[in-house]
TrEMBL record:
The gene is aroQ. The active site is at residues 25, 102. This is 3-dehydroquinate dehydratase. Pfam families: DHquinase_II. The keyword Amino-acid biosynthesis applies. The record marks 20 as: Transition state stabilizer. Homododecamer. InterPro entries: DHquinase_II, DHquinase_II_CS, DHquinase_II_sf. It comes from the Bacteria. GO terms for biological process: amino acid biosynthetic process; aromatic amino acid family biosynthetic process; chorismate biosynthetic process; quinate catabolic process. Its EC number is 4.2.1.10. NCBIfam families: aroQ, PRK05395.1-2, PRK05395.1-3, PRK05395.1-4. One of its GO terms (molecular function) is 3-dehydroquinate dehydratase activity. Catalyzes a trans-dehydration via an enolate intermediate.
Amino acid sequence: MPMNRLLLLNGPNINLLGKREKEVYGKFTLHDIEIEVADLAQKHGHELDCFQSNHEGELIDRLHQANGKYTGIVFNPAAYTHTSIALRDAIMAIDTPVIEVHISNVHKREAFRYQSMLASACYGQVVGFGLKSYRLAALAFLESK
Ligand code: DQA
């Protein structure tokens, strides 16, 4: 089984957190998320690698590269959640478990956000707890050992 490392993966527009739709996503930034999850991981003896991209293919490449290298992947696919069969196939293609994360409660928002192309390919899903969604997903991996 994989080494003591987690991958934190974020999709499109997550780089704009803190400026973007603050009433939906809050004031915290991507950097805040990365610091907090890295700290949590460290407390559980894990290193954290972080990657954010606005490009679907780059996220797919990162998933491929991650295969077999991590305890798990905490992934906020952002809008690609609702559209990307290619990301779903990438998750299906690797052995490393992925937890899908959303900051907002997508089920209380527009109907086009209700569907996830990825969720049924994932180990689990955490939705609607703001920055804490990432912490809870990371803990699901960190406490499962
Ligand atoms: C999001 C929810 C998505 O519907 C949206 O496209 C995002 C962010 C979230 O974290 O709440 O960009 O993934």
